[in-house]
Specification:
The protein has 529 residues and is mainly beta. The protein is 9% helix and 27% strand. The strands form 8 sheets. Strands 1, 5, 6, 12, 16, 21, 22, 23 and 25 form a 9-stranded antiparallel beta sheet that branches. An 8-stranded antiparallel beta sheet has the order 2-10-24-13-14-15-20-17, with no helix packed on it. 41% of the residues are buried.
């Protein structure tokens, strides 16, 4: 599989593309520990131009009405920044293989605040939809452990086979962070083993269950060799260090006002097995290649590469301490730029409660130069995935037979969509975009009523994308995620059809009455027709 993003003018609104969906929503960061995301994800901020995918970040305002879980009522919401998140959830997934992505980062290398990322998430969780990830992220654990059973939505202790899942096999939505970039002013970082400084890239496997406090897990700002329990069989490249600033999150009991609920029994520890590596200014000026090698299974591993050089590696043997696994879940690609006060921001000055580049009081919490760095563009040249067709652990598709997700998602669709959405994803359009000439319809033509009609094997509203088809077809083919849209019919023709139908019905009634009047049904029918 590859997406080269060479065709200009592609859009990624829900229903526009067979492989990708650009979100049109706020980042659901509404937990007691969260509420730090500053951006609204706008689907119009993702597009293709000059042979690249672009994700645009601006300081534009967005206002909308949404349900406030804390005050239990609908309220007016606002964000003072717009950005984009592109995800392949429930459209294109893969398990195992090699992923390569060439990128150029947004903003300035010396100015903190932007958070560009490329990452993978298991299809059972949908990024930014907290209900779907609650008790699902980032589990990679198949065993039955009664002390953890309540904290894992699909536990290895389950004895029934629901949704085509195997009884006695735990499931989850693991996360592999290929790229998370921390820009900022240069300066040696504390606690790191090598001379790492900003800007740097974080490469992380996030898994559960995590090492509990009872086993003396490391704290932020410490190193494992200081007497803490951590994972071994980790490989670090040159100018790469363990990430001593983030070892994972504890997802504890939630408060009654939070949008998702976890009881004390459902609380659990997540681990972030990660490394950070140096970057330089050229990563903001030209394209650089990042590569992930992913081998699932009992002898599995993960390897991160930057411009062909090994940066970080995790072996399955290193995860055996907690019984977690190198991910085996069908996973999808996510590309986004976030803005968060928890990532690269300076300490917030006292009394600084608003973050808005358009007001003098709102600029108090940013790095100098941050507001001047906008608008900023995160550029992607291509994404390519390579697999070994002879390897049974390498699969393409979001619903592989060994790790199905389809029926679970259908049964729990409310967790994967916004409250007012009819479905989690719209049907993929096959033509129907407005046009004046054939040129506007890519691999198609401008048909009647100035609407695009796609040629065979092309899709999207303006026929700019090949109709996606993988080499591992869905074994459970009750339905397919690409739908052929019905032809565009102007509303006035619809009303004409209704009037015509009504006239035919009236004529038929009149004919019936005449038949009875003359008492000769067969003769009357022959005469009239």
């Amino acid at each position: 599989m590859s997406d080269e993003f060479n065709r200009p003018g592609r859009t990624f609104h829900d229903g526009d593309d067979p492989m990708w969906t650009a979100l049109q929503k706020s980042d659901d960061d509404q937990t007691a520990q969260g509420k730090k995301s500053l951006q609204f994800y706008n689907s119009s901020h993702i597009y293709t131009k000059d042979g690249h995918l672009h994700i645009l970040t601006t300081d534009d305002d967005t206002h909308w009405t949404s349900y406030n879980p804390y005050k239990k009522k609908y309220m007016k919401m606002e964000r003072h920044f717009r950005s984009g998140m592109l995800q392949g959830w429930n459209k294109f997934c893969f398990t195992g293989g090699i992923l390569e992505v060439d990128v150029k980062f947004p903003g300035k290398s010396s100015v903190g605040g932007l958070w560009p990322a490329v990452w993978l998430l298991g299809n059972l969780g949908r990024a930014t939809y907290e209900q779907s990830t609650n008790l699902m992220w980032p589990w990679s654990y198949t065993r039955c452990d009664r002390s953890l059973q309540h904290a894992q939505a699909v536990s290895g202790c389950d004895v029934t086979e629901h949704f085509d899942m195997v009884a006695g096999e735990g499931r989850g939505a693991t996360e592999i962070d290929i790229i998370e970039v921390m820009p900022g002013e240069m300066g040696r970082l504390p606690f790191v083993k090598k001379p790492i400084e900003r800007p740097y890239v974080a490469m992380t496997l996030q898994v559960a269950p995590g090492i509990p406090e009872s086993k003396k897990r490391p704290l932020s700002g410490t190193l494992p060799e200081w007497g803490f329990t951590w994972y071994d069989n980790l490989t670090y490249g040159e100018n790469v260090s363990i990430n001593p600033f983030f070892y994972g999150s504890y997802l504890g009991e939630t408060k009654t006002l939070e949008p998702v609920g976890r009881s004390k029994k459902e609380s659990y520890q997540c681990d972030a097995v990660g490394a950070i590596g140096n970057l330089n200014d050229s990563f903001w000026e030209t394209m650089h290649r990042f590569r992930l090698e992913w081998e699932p299974g009992k002898d599995g591993y993960l390897r991160w590469y930057i411009d062909g050089e090994l940066s970080f590696g995790v072996d399955q043997a290193g995860l055996d301490i907690m019984g977690s696994l190198i991910p085996t879940e069908p996973s999808y690609v996510i590309i986004n730029t976030a803005i968060s006060t928890s990532w690269g921001f300076p300490p917030t000055p006292q009394g600084c409660t608003e973050f808005d580049c358009k007001t003098s009081t709102g600029r108090c919490g940013f790095d100098p130069g941050f507001c001047r760095s906008l608008p900023a563009i995160f550029s992607v040249d291509h994404i390519r995935i390579y697999q070994d067709k002879e390897n049974p652990t390498h699969t393409v598709g979001c619903n592989p037979r060994a790790f199905p997700t389809k029926k679970y998602i259908i049964a729990n669709e409310h967790k994967y969509k916004r409250m007012n959405d009819k479905h989690a994803l719209k049907d993929v359009k096959n033509g129907g975009g407005t046009c004046r000439t054939d040129i506007q319809c890519g691999e198609g033509r401008c048909g009647r009523y100035s609407r695009c009609v796609c040629h065979h094997d092309w899709t999207g509203p303006h026929c700019l994308v090949p109709a996606y088809c993988n080499d591992f077809p869905d074994w459970d083919i009750e339905e397919h995620w690409v739908y052929m849209a019905s032809p565009f019919i102007p509303s006035f023709l619809g009303w004409c059809a209704v009037i015509l139908f009504g006239s035919l019905v009236s004529s038929a009634v009149a004919i019936g009455m005449r038949r009875r009047e003359y008492g000769s049904i067969s003769d009357t029918f022959a005469t009239l027709w």
